[in-house]
Amino acid sequence: MRGVTVDLATTTEGSGPPLVLLHGITEDASFWAPVVPLLTPWATVTTVDLRGHGASPDGGGYDLEDMADDVAATFGDEPPLVVGHSLGGLLAVVVAARHTTRGVVDVDQPLALGGLQAGVQQAAPLLRGSGAEFEGFMTAMFASMQGGTPDVEAAALAVRRRPRQDVVTGIWTPLLDWSPAELDAFVERTAAAVTVPVLSLHGLDPGPDYAAWLTARVPTATVEHWTDDDGADLGHHPHLRRPERFAARVREFASGL
Question: Which InterPro entries does this UniProt record tie to the protein (predicted)?
């Protein structure tokens, strides 16, 4: 059902300007645990379980704008900096398009969604197939995003994920069921409504043309691609691979807002 706001499970700690952390699909607020203590000395940090994840209820649907409104309903009087990873990064941008925020940090979620849509539509029989087919696809997808993440670290993340078929296919309705033109229109409309500064920080290379693509649509955006000392991609969770560097970069970004 569209237009229904879900009361999300949240935890708040620290002191300073408000900062909201949004996790990725199949994950929950606990995935931010290594980063939170590095942010709380200077920020009031709220971690959120998105609808259908962690301790938050389902809400009867997974429209992205409704999910963004869920997040905005957790805000206090002062607009926060919204930091999101993967799905949370996309939602952070949607939140900024619909509500007042100080800025956005989008971690490893390109907004150019055409390639992702093509892959998801190709995998639709698996995503909507048996439980084993769905879980097999999700496992393979996350493995393909490992980058330079050591196997032991990737395995530790994998066992903590909770992939629910109804939640994933619900959230991915725009990828599964919309036409490319409909998806492009949503992205263009959302991007055009974002006026706050955006830090788009990637552990997987978003491609040589992505920075130009994004800044043409969100002129306030800055794009960064982080690698390890050998020049290899950090992988889909750069904030967990380099939490101290990440926290310092977020603080630097926040100081300019």
Answer: AB_hydrolase_1, AB_hydrolase_fold, AB_hydrolase_sf
59: left (phi over 0), alpha (psi -120 to 50) or beta: left
pTM above 0.90, yes or no: yes
Structure tokens at 141: 């997808």
Residues 6+ apart with CB under 8 A from 7: 56, 57, 73
**CA-wise closest residue to 198 among 224, 171, 179, 175:** 224
pLDDT at residue 150 above 90? yes
CATH of 9-255, one of 3.40.50.1820, 3.30.70.270, 1.10.3300.10, 3.40.605.10: 3.40.50.1820
Locate 113 and state its tokens: 């969604």
Q: What is the pLDDT of residues 58-85, one digit of tens each?
A: 988 999 999 999 999 999 999 999 999 9
Beta-bridge partner residues of 14: 44
**Helix locations, the chain, DSSP H:** 36-39, 64-72, 87-98, 114-122, 124-127, 131-144, 151-158, 165-171, 173-177, 180-192, 210-217, 238-241, 243-255
In this structure, is the dihedral angle defined by the CA atoms of residues 250, 64, 9 and 98, taken in order, positive or negative? positive
> Are the beta carbons of 38 and 13 closer than 8 angstroms?
no
Contacts of 51 (CB under 8 A, 6+ apart): 6, 8, 57, 58, 59, 62, 67, 70
Count of CB atoms situated within 10 Å of the CB of 208: 8
Cα-based distances in Å from 97 to 3, 21, 77: 16, 17, 18
Place of tokens 């993340």: 157
